[in-house]
Amino acid sequence: MERFKIFLLTVAVSVQVKSQDSTTEPPVQIPKPQITLNVAHKVLYKTERVTLSCEVTGGPPGLQYDWYKNSEDLGEHQHNITASDSGKYECKATKGAMSEKSDSYTLTLEDPPQPQVRSDWTEAFHGEKVSLQCVIQASENWNYMWFKGQNKIVSNDETNIQGNTLTLSVQSSHDGEYVCQAVLQDRKVTTSMSTPYSLTVRELPKPELSITPEWKTFYPTEKLTLKCSVKEDSDKWGYEWFRNGAPLPKDKDKDISFPGNTLSISSAKAVHSGQYTCRGRHLKRTPVTTGETGAVQLLVYDTTPKAAITKREWFELFYTEERVQLHCNMSGVGWKYHWYKGTNPPIINPELTINSVSHAHTGDYHCKAQRGDFSVNSKTLQVRVQARPPASLTLETELSDIMTGDMTLRCNITDGRQWNYTWFMNGQQLNESSNVLKVAGNEETIKSEFKCKGRNVVRPLYSALSDGFIANNIIFKRKILLAISGCLVCCIVILIIGCIVLKITRKPEVKETPHTDLFFSMTDSKNQTASPMKEYIDSSPTELEELQEKEELITDRTSVVHEDGVIKDEETPASEANGLTSFKGR
Ligand SMILES: *[C@@H]1O[C@H](CO)[C@@H](O)[C@H](O)[C@H]1NC(C)=O
Ligand SMILES: *[C@@H]1O[C@H](CO)[C@@H](O)[C@H](O)[C@H]1NC(C)=O
Ligand SMILES: *[C@@H]1O[C@H](CO)[C@@H](O)[C@H](O)[C@H]1NC(C)=O
Ligand SMILES: *[C@@H]1O[C@H](CO)[C@@H](O)[C@H](O)[C@H]1NC(C)=O
Ligand SMILES: *[C@@H]1O[C@H](CO)[C@@H](O)[C@H](O)[C@H]1NC(C)=O
Fold first, then answer.
1. What is the SS3 string spanning 390-401?
2. What is the tens place of the pLDDT at every residue in 400-411?
3. φ, ψ dihedrals at 300, nearest 5°
4. Boundary of a domain, candidates 157, 187, 202
């Protein structure tokens, strides 16, 4: 504008001069001087050196100049002066008595404005690209300089200065205060430093990936959840999921969803197997992502096998008192096992152990492996229990035993197999291993309880234990019987001897008196001689009857003894009967 005015004035003056020239011969006149600047900048700054020239167009030679600033004589007499202050400048051209003053020229030198640092970041994550701008309220073509603290920043791999923008690939060393300065290189104008701008560099948080439940192999339809979490400022982060390194597509699989920081698989399938990773993505600064987490390797099986039942010593048929051990096993971890028999409440244990099986344990067993809502059943196993072969203990009555007072006990197991035997007296095991036990009948043994059982090398390894047997007064009775029998035999022998003696001593009498009643007496004598024999013969049945009666008596007594519960343990009457049969059968 200023320049334009000057130009107009110049034109006006020259036109005037020309018109004067053309009209009359000039009395020497000095044209009005004009003050011009050597620069055309719109804004001039204090640090600049500006040259003001006093132009007198077409003036006579030998002009003298005077300069005034704010109407004060500067004492400068050059055609041009260097000004470094704002003010109202005037110049005067003088020749002889003539002089002409220019219009005043107002020179304004401004302080350069202070630049400001602007940025969207006050904190930045390591690796993030951050830009700072140096902003100055002036339209010149400034150059910019950046300083971190006292040090001038030069462009390198991590810093780049382009125009007024400083771009940082943030390193932890970039944490600090930044200032900038604008420069007009050719005019030697330098602004003051901006106010410091503080940038905080933060390390990128490391997200953590966890899985619930904590195992990593799954069966179809199981549920699981992966959780990705950035600990600090967790609300500022979103999450991205990857399977085998590729981003998981959204909405492609209805069984997978990943809202918030979790990835939920509502029903596992084999295709869900793979390596899962995740990373955090800053919600505000979208290009900012954390590194990926370590991978969780998931394996989802194609099919669900049945829970395996492991049987220890499994037999189609168990004998009572044998041990039944069933083990339920499902591959993988986290299983709880439940054992079921029929509709009974479950037994919660991976192992079902019945230490001494009985008939009541017969039934169908199965187990269920369970974790979370998911469960798998095993096959059904049938446990069947049968009784052990019974052992029966009998007392044998042999003549030699009756004579010596011994007892012969026999153990009989009637399943047709070969057995070895174990004998017990009052619960104490004896050395005998054959099926017959001979014991001397004495005070102690007749009161003792005997039992036997079979032993074998193939199952069943032993038979049931026989009922207990207590001889008690059987031996005593036997002795009485023996005594009675002995007496009877003695009597008979005595009788026979008596008869013989009689016969011999009567023989002469018979010869001396042979008369009519000889026949009679013969018959009589016959009767008489026959008498002892006859008596014997006649008496024999009665004596035998007596004997039998006694036996019966004894039998009754023994049965009474049995009934009295001396042999309390006896439950099978067969054994009792056996014992008695054997006794009777003598
Ligand atoms: C100012 O004056 C000096 C001496 O008269 C001269 O050398 C110089 O070129 C002048 N500068 C301008 C911009 O006119
Ligand atoms: C359970 O089964 C797995 C294989 O399916 C096997 O490795 C493991 O030893 C079994 N565990 C038991 C206690 O039997
Ligand atoms: C064993 O008992 C059975 C029937 O109980 C019988 O038939 C068999 O004769 C007995 N054996 C002996 C040696 O007593
Ligand atoms: C059984 O026999 C062994 C030797 O074979 C002997 O040392 C032990 O004393 C016997 N036990 C009884 C109760 O007789
Ligand atoms: C009985 O015992 C003997 C010797 O200990 C053994 O050799 C045999 O196999 C056993 N027999 C049975 C049927 O247990």
1. CEEEEEECCHHH
2. 777 777 888 999
3. -115, 125
4. 202
Q: Which of 211-225, 230-244, 280-294 is predicted least confidently?
A: 280-294
User: Which protein residues are within 6 Å of ligand 3, measured from CB?
Assistant: 410, 412, 414
Domain total in the chain: 6
Q: How far apart are CA 146 and CA 117, in angstroms?
A: 10
Residue 512 has pLDDT above 60, yes or no: no
How far apart are alpha carbons 3 and 69 in whole angstroms?
Answer: 19
Pocket test for ligand 3, best of 392, 408, 414 (most atoms within 8 A of CB): 414
For ligand 3, what atom is nearest to the CA of residue 578? 5
| Helices and strands, number each (H, E), in the chain | 6, 46
Positive or negative torsion for Cα 463, 467, 473, 477: negative
In this structure, are residues 446 and 475 in contact, taking their beta carbons and an 8 Å threshold?
Answer: yes
The CATH number of the domain holding residue 90 is 2.60.40.10
Nearest CA to ligand 3 atom 13: 412
Q: Which pLDDT band, with edges at 50, 70 and 90, does 576 fall under?
A: very low
Q: Which pLDDT tens digit goes with each residue over 242-277? A: 999 999 988 788 999 999 899 999 999 999 999 999
Alpha carbon of 192 to ligand 5 centroid (Å): 114
Q: How far is the CA of 51 from the centre of ligand 1 (A)?
A: 9
Tell me the ligand closest to 457's alpha carbon: 5
Mean pLDDT, range 52-76, rounded to an integer? 89
Which segment of 82-86, 103-107, 311-315 scores lowest on mean pLDDT? 311-315
Q: Is residue 484 part of a domain?
A: no
What is the rounded CA–CA span in Å between residue 362 and residue 341? 9
Give the ligand with the smallest distance to the CA of 459: 5
